[in-house]
Prior knowledge:
This protein is mostly helical.
Amino acid sequence: MMTSAAEDGGSGGMTEYIVHHLQHLQLKVGEGAFMTINIDSVFFKFMMIALFLLVFLRVARRSTSGVPGKLQCAIEMVVEMVDGLVKETFHGRSKLVAPLALTIFVLTFLMNFMDMVPVDALPAAGHAAGLNYLRVVPTADLNTTLGMALCVFLLIQYMGIKHKGLGGFFGEFFTAPFGPKLAPANLLLRMIEEAVRPVSLSLRLFGNMYAGELIFILIAVMTLGASVEAASTYLLGGAQFISGFIWTAFHVLIITLQAFIFMMLTIVYLSMSAEHH
């Protein structure tokens, strides 16, 4: 999210600007706001899903065994990387894990990459369309990352039952790692382990992306309400450009690393679930 010069626009100052940019476009459902849906997170998430399907399906249909184009070459590199990691990490047999890992990595990266959009660009476009709030990074929303983590959690249980059977899977709750004589301790440790997985997956991704988004916003407020006649405006503008460039370059590494970590932990958890203890 390369920073742009922030305009005050009568918002009431720095605090109001930051709060405004961190507020979701929401839809309240039911009496007394029984449920609140962050429409912007849902919209941009499905937009990234559509982009992922469009690009990968198009490349797959037009792929050639001859000299590949740049896009096909890039996608083949990603596919081969993910496939190699799955073969090295996942020790069971499943046709689901490699496509799942690829989908998780690419979709998470695309959603993270929305943080590269200029901090005021889409909110300003949303305001012009009559939308008071608009956040563009789905993974900076805890609801998104928690939903992804819960899906992985359910897949872990499915993989364990599929490879070990219902009795073997739940039997390990009482027998591993200390043996059947310490069944209560085994059960307690297993429950903690299972609960920690979705929490750690969701909070790690959310925390990194939320912090990255917040830093971009803080860089943007460096010239909030600045006057073109003041010499300090140009000094702050220069510092803002340098800070934005450095953070953007560093953040590219962060968004890629977070997508990779989420994918790798998913593979590891699925492999642990499929292994017999």
